[in-house]
């Protein structure tokens, strides 16, 4: 019976080790080599830095240290071998702790190097995959060949537990790949934020707890207790896999929502810019006017230290500040000569028209402020409502300066854009009358910084 169980256990062990190598390679390939040409160096790197090699290195390192230490004291190899087999509990627990600690350090080091070699966007994910496979390997570390001394009945139980343990580990390998790795593959892009601690600390704690616990159980309660502990540790690992499946799925769902939100935001901006260009196209001499006003308005808002959301909103308001011109006849907008009073009064209706149009956009009610009040003057002599001072919304006061600046720095049918010093002087001259003096100062700062005079049509 023992021989049959030993054969089945050997087959299970061999199957597990083969799967460990295959799954590690497939996991790295799926997450980090999916868009790259797979070269032999990738395969060699993954094979040479797998947890089995690291496990052997960590155990072998301390065997070498113990051997060298005892040899230096004059002990022969037979004594050293006997000492290693019958070491005291304190020496054994120290050996187990230090081996486990070095094992974890090697896993972290080699996974980091592999991540660098693969040019992975998130090395923490490479580290996590290596740690998960390192846990599986640690849980497979059992040797039934010494358990025959416990009697045939006990040996049968232990070999059976060994086989069950390997079958559970094979299932865990498949679950890691099916549940976790496939979700991790969605998180291996540059634009996704990953919390490194979330993916590294839990597996490290698992391993640090497992090594001394495993040794203590073997020393105090024997091989049966160790095998039962290993089997229950595999059950804990299943819960661990499920937890990380939920975590990665939630992170991916959040990232997908953020991406969708950003896509909608981008689409909204593009639609607004297209609409602004459509409005500006009514006048061949104001092509691009709304986008430039939006840009200058955002520059002033940033200079003033407004929050990023406020700066973006001012940009949107600048884009649509002239939307009311859609209701003004083309012959008035494109009239090459001076407008008469009647025509000028028609032009003055565009803020109200724009206000009415944008008031229908309930998700961004602030847009209508830029449309209605960008022709108000700080001294109260503007239109349509003759607001003055701080009664004019801040965004409208900013857009008013940007609007006037672009009018002077754009080509018209009767002139080319004005020289920069002339524009600056005119802006400064109208500070406190047409423009808010505080906002004017920020516009003058932008002009002064524009040494090459690139801010014009």
List keywords for this structure.
17 helices; elongated; 2 domains; 72% helix; Hypothetical protein af1432; mainly alpha; 457 residues; single chain
Task: Explain the overall architecture.
The protein is mainly alpha-helical. The chain has 2 domains: 2-260, no CATH class; 281-449, Hypothetical protein af1432 (Orthogonal Bundle), CATH 1.10.3210.10. It is built from 17 helices and no strands. The protein has helices at residues 2-32, 40-48, 51-72, 77-85, 89-117, 123-139, 152-184, 196-280, 289-303, 308-319, 330-333, 341-347, 350-358, 367-373, 394-408, 420-429, 437-449. Helix 1 (2-32) packs antiparallel against helix 6. 32% of the residues are buried. Residues 143-151 have low confidence and may be disordered.
Output the number of helix runs: 17
Note poorly predicted spans: 143-151
Number of strands: 0
For the report, how would you describe the main beta sheet? none
The span between the termini is: 91 Å
Beta content: under 5%
Give helix % range: over 70%
Instruction: Quote the average pLDDT.
Output: 82
Q: What is the C-alpha radius of gyration, as a whole number of Å?
A: 37 Å
Q: Tell me the count of domains.
A: 2
Shape: elongated
Order of helices and strands: HHHHHHHHHHHHHHHHH
Helix/sheet category = mainly alpha
Can I get a quick summary?
By secondary structure, the chain is an all-alpha fold. It is built from 17 helices and no strands.
